[in-house]
Amino acid sequence: MLDNNKQPVIGLFVTCLADLYRPEVVFASIKLLEAAGCRVEVPQGQTCCGQPAFNTGDFSNTADIARLTITALEGYEYVVGPSGSCIGMLHHYPELFQPEDPWHARAQALKARAFEITSFLVDVLQFSNIKSQFKGQVTYHDSCSGLRELGIKQQPRALLAQIEGVELTEMEESETCCGFGGTFCVKYADISNRMVGNKTENVAKTGASTLLGGDLGCLLNMAGKLQREGKDVQVRHIVEVLADELSYPALGESAYHLGKSL
Amino acid sequence: MQITSPQFKENARIALTDVGLQKALGNVKNGFPQKRANAVKRLPEFDQLRDQGRDLKNHIIANLDIYLEEFEANVIKNGGHVHWCRTSEDARQTILKICQDKGAKTVTKGKSMVTEEINLNEYLEANGITPVETDLGEYILQLRGEHPSHIIAPAIHLNLEDVSETFHAHHHKPKSMDPAVLMQEAREELRARFVAADVGITGANFLVAETGSSIIVTNEGNGDLTQTLPKTHIVVTSIEKVVPTLEDMTLFLRLLARSATGQEFTVYNTLSTGPKRPEDQDGPEDYHVVLVDNGRSDMVGGELQEMLRCIRCAACMNHCPVYGSIGGHSYGWVYPGPMGSVLTPQMIGIEKAALLPNASTFCGKCESVCPVHIPLPKLMRHWRKNEFERHLTPKAARWGIKTWAFFAKRPTLYRLLSQTSNRMLRLLGGKKGRIHKLPVVSGWTDHREMPAPSSKTFMQQWNEKQKAGH
Ligand code: SF4
Questions:
Q1: Cα(B312)–Cα(B113) distance, rounded to whole angstroms?
Q2: What is the ipTM of this complex?
Q3: So what's the pLDDT on residue A261?
Q4: CATH 3.90.1150.10 at A129-258, yes or no
Q5: How far is B427 from chain A (nearest CA, A)?
Q6: Minimal Cα distance from B377: which residue of A?
């Protein structure tokens, strides 16, 4: 539990996909953090966590991007982001530097302060004041990096359990990869397609009208597949539901009827 | 065996549409992982054993030479022979020579992935010696002229109908779909072969330094007959299999059975300690151990060292969603799945195996079930790095990542890039809010819609708000 008299200052790690595809996820994160008594700042020096370069084997560019990110996020008590995958990448930074390199210690320090949002709300803030009007049957996909690198499993469920209108139906194999894998889904399109097809089948079997998760990469992948298959399931990032930010359409749904312009 | 790893993508594409294979793969997914999970649940200290297994293996690898020499000394003391083979070719020649010295015509074989690795069967056949596989799965594959698609369940890619047809064609008996009948047929065929064999070749799950013993674990008992009936027993195995003591061996047996098949213990655990002694009722007159290196000692002290901890339990492939989609043959060489994607490049060269370490989403499931905590994603990433440094990464991907990184290192430019992409994608998404076809990422849109961004980039909106004094 945090010291009640002190307002923690959060450096928000926006993450590229949320910045590009789903700004509402970032606004919802800010809303939640503020509701939990934090002050949120958006460090301007940040870009991407560097994962695309890291997983392509370009360690030299990854280290450059890591230095940039470490610098941008220094000075904040906590760094929080709406993605297990990107925060997991920040946790990989110490591997990029030799132990005697000063950057190694700085990377370690960032790792110790960097949290995925649901785990920050539950594990660090012990926040239990979620207020959302959301109503419906949902199912939850455990994204791989969050689950296995950061141990995120019960945190999102603990938060959802605070919303009266949420009925959670677990899908089979909720811990199995959806087949996104960054560039994997394009480089190994056929295999990825099979994996996401298995996933949407499991989603559909629950009968849930909304699929939630904590990582936009996976969510875009599953939303795109559900839509291509004509399965009527809305896909949202969990923070949208937690923050009651539901006034705009779910992923890949039409904004037209809401009268929004481009 | 013909290497088809460079055609991994084509192999995978074909595998994905192979109805029989897909049915068989469904059995892997629904079988092994559940059994393992149940076995783990029944043993609360399982995770502690995994840590012990990892630590012990690390100790062994750091002292590999010492334990191997101790093992050798004890084998010799027991009256056996040890042959050190640096390459597959050395190993093949050594084994052939032993067989020829015995005037062998047929050899029976227990299941051994190392003999697959060194391509032993084809070599023996080319030299006039008939190898007979005695493990049921391997026997089926031999009749069909196929190679294993899995390291502990070699014929897992087949269905009962396939086996039934194969036996019908080779055994000239009425066709049966009863597994018990098929098993009996195989037994009858093999009994005669066991007795006629001049040499028995087995692998080894572990080598025990303190006693000079080798051990094989099987669920069929075929290995026992393979190593006790013929006059000569050759153990073909690799150097990282050595463990210091019998007690250490039992630690790994406990980890292995649970991780592999979800058993508490494998049915047959058979130790061989040298040739038959005067007071023994049975056993071989000659006992040879062929120790294959084949690139392993190069891994000691390097970035792949942790891979040497592998005890070949197959948990990583049993739990791998990529393996589960395409099966083992797609990987194009002996070792499939995550462990293969690390080992194969080391053994056949990264040039040929370049696609394997990339064929992973890094979901991390493999590492989470590995009984000796091998960080398989990290090791696959090591190969990606190696490929990138040696310019083996496809040009387009290389150029793409470098261009992207140029922007990612410059926040202001990166923002502009994001804004431009955001606007373009929103335009393409139009009223529908999603894109049906986008040729530059056809890998995505061939199979799914691409959701369009819901509004301007976050950074744009945030900074506008800040300016407005919000
Ligand atoms: S890498 Fe680990 S899980 Fe895979 S076969 Fe080896 S020991 Fe088993």
A1: 9
A2: 0.94
A3: 44
A4: no
A5: 7
A6: A55
